[in-house]
Amino acid sequence: MCTSEGLYGEAVQILADEGSWCHIRLLKDGYEGFVQTEQLDTDQAAQIKATHRVCQRSTLLFAEPDMKSQLRHRIPFGAEVSLTVEADTPFSRTACGYYLWSAHCLPLSENHPASPLELAHSVFLGSPYLWGGRSPEGIDCSGLVQALARSQGLAIPRDSGDQEAFLSNNVSADDCQAQDLAYWPGHTGILVSPTELLHATAHSLCCVIEPLQAVIDRAGPMSSVKRLF
Question: Residue 92 and residue 184: Cα distance in Å, rounded?
Answer without folding.
Answer: 42
